[in-house]
Amino acid sequence: MSVTRLKGEYDLVLYGLGVMGENFIRNFARNGRRVIGVNRTVAVTERFAREVAQEEIADRVGTAETLAEACRHLKSPGGAVLAMIKANDPVVEPWGPIDDLFFKGSVARYGDDDRRNVPALVDIVPEGTVIIDAANSHPHSTKRRCQEFARRGILFIGTGVSGGSEGALKGPSIMPGGSREAYDVVGDMLEAAAARAEGACCTYVGDNEAGHFVKNVHNGIEYGIMQAISEVYYGLQQVVGLDYEGLHEVFAEMTGGSHGGYLMEISTAALAMKDAATGRPVLDVILDRAGQKGTGKWTSQMAFDLGVPVPTIAAALQARIMSSFKAARVAASERLERHTSGAFDAAERDQLLWAAADALYGAMVAAYDQGFWMLREASGAEPEQNNGLYDFTLDLAEVARIWKGGCIIRSALLDPIREAYLTDPELPSLLLAPYFKQAVGCARFQKNWRYWVCTMVSQGLPCDAIAASLNYLDTYRTARLPANMIQAQRDTFGEHGFERVDREGKGFHLEPA
Ligand SMILES: NC(=O)c1ccc[n+]([C@@H]2O[C@H](COP(=O)([O-])OP(=O)(O)OC[C@H]3O[C@@H](n4cnc5c(N)ncnc54)[C@H](OP(=O)(O)O)[C@@H]3O)[C@@H](O)[C@H]2O)c1
Fold first, then answer.
1. Is 67 in the pocket of ligand 1 (CB under 6 A)?
2. CATH level 3 topology of 12-204
3. Can you name the residues that pair with 203 across neighbouring β-strands?
4. 215 noted as active-site residue
5. In this predicted model, what pLDDT tens digit does every residue of 280-323 receive, in sequence order?
6. Where are the domains of the chain?
7. Angle at the Cα of 398 from the Cα atoms of 146 and 82, rounded to 5 degrees
8. Does the CB atom of residue 85 touch ligand 1 within 6 A?
9. Domain 217-476 - what CATH class?
10. Distance of alpha carbon 159 from alpha carbon 204, whole angstroms
11. Which residues pair with 74 in a beta bridge?
12. Span from the CA of 162 to the centroid of ligand 1 (angstroms)
């Protein structure tokens, strides 16, 4: 059965009818665009065609069995093809489905025994079409694709999209990078589909792989904040003994104030949620094994390649990895006893509640700061400054602004972050911006943060992201670190040389008196 239902000319072909793709189509159509949906597995297109036929946008949405058919109905020039399919990990699989789709063809494998001859997108798009990759692609893949499209004279955009399926439907945060000329063609369409916060939460973020770099850093920050929130709920439950009602109350208060944001909102809701099947609190029935699709790993790898510290993000990634060893942890829990350094004093309950709020706030600030440090380091640098890894210039205040709406990491912190970069685009760290310095530098705040970490450590409970964040603060604000010992060690075994505090130059060696 054919699913091709096309009438007239369309503005956009959207390939990939997963949760993101199909909702993005609805969003574009609600904004007056005519869109064609296509998917690798035709049964999915059939289902989508049936559903959308019942919706008010039906006359603006078509479906096609193949991309070639869809492209024949694309307006030219000025039409666009947006791919929203599974991205590949360039280390594990240097050439993936998106490259097949764009350059090689035969992408549509309907199972091994039903492989159709699908042409490459570059061979079938009409003149003047903009190709958009809206998957969570690795920036290095996007950089390579930008070069290939430029060589072929095809306009290309690699864009990050944040907001999950609901965001795709109602307005996500969109982070397009790539060809400026391409953005001039499709920018209005993308901006109309985006969330709103002081304008559209979509702007041209920069050349080449800028969009996907910004999105990956966004995901790293997301990892850090999610982990810190989880640690606070767990600590209050395990140490103070709060039940879900009590936890919900504490979280609701934080969410209504300076900690507010989407991740806090959904966590607060999860604390109150009951499982439909059993009536038990939903968090009690969810297995403690965190999933991941790899973007936190990519962010950490990119940070290490850039030489930027991301302890909060890396700790969050490692905590997810540790959680995946469920069977090993259960076995170890039966063999390795937990010895605490004393019982928690119930009289200190209120102090720990204050400490929880400040520790969480500190970790959130640290996660954003590390992300923005990455953005700053990658942006506008001469090739020798960032190892030739990236080639774009970012406006950090604008990045903060487009994350304020529709975005998974939207939060109350993004206003002062934006303000900080508007005031000083060269700000070396958010910790030094007056707004954050006032909080993080305050004695009571720091004591609370330390008290939280000390309590978790003394009670034998993990607090990876919050402790890593505190170490980040302490390392950053320490004028003299023990790195002198590292240098002495390196010179001893490898004659690597060191710099001295009392003389200019490099390459000094240990010369014991
Ligand atoms: N989910 C989110 O919250 C979110 C947020 C931002 C960005 N993203 C990104 O958006 C993209 C889509 O995400 P999603 O959650 O909607 O779904 P997904 O599960 O990541 O991907 C499903 C889509 O990819 C297609 N696909 C998979 N392998 C393919 C291949 N080899 N050739 C052609 N098509 C292939 C599937 O087609 P079939 O139906 O034929 O399998 C389906 O349309 C991903 O890159 C994801 O990382 C997701």
1. no
2. Rossmann fold (3.40.50)
3. none
4. yes
5. 999 999 999 999 999 999 999 999 999 999 999 999 999 999 99
6. 12-204, 217-476
7. 35
8. yes
9. mainly alpha
10. 9
11. 10
12. 14
